[in-house]
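Continuing the batch. This is chain 6 of the set; chains 1 through 5 are on the previous pages. Same settings as before, nothing changed between runs. Recording input and output for traceability.
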Amino acid sequence: MTVTLSRVDETFWSLVRRIGGEVVAAREPGRYMKKLREDAGVTQEEIARIIGLRRESISRIENGSVAPTLSYVRRFARIMAALKIVRELLAREEVSMLAGQGTAFSPRVLRLCLNFSARELSLISELGFKSYQRTKKKVLRRVR
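Output for chain 6:
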């Protein structure tokens, strides 16, 4: 996945469709969502805060006690896609800075493309930054 600011909208919706489709098609959607969340370096508490559910609800969905609703899958896919984009752009910014080509990434630009509220974007940006820091080596290897 290559993300540039000019392709954010296209990349975002492509990711949303892919993630949502994979979740819906999964034999165990909750477990697949757990894998995606963990791969992104996000805790249940963090995803619960941004989605607006309790951590216990996320746990029940991930463990298969409760089936995720289509609305939840759609929201989850949008958030995971946005997190992937934020992480990718942060990695690209860091690589540019290391190469002496200082480019600045502003998460506010994403608000225009991704149609999130200011609060949601703030949480996604914060979470994307934390997630990026946790998995930085893996993301940088892919970008280089």
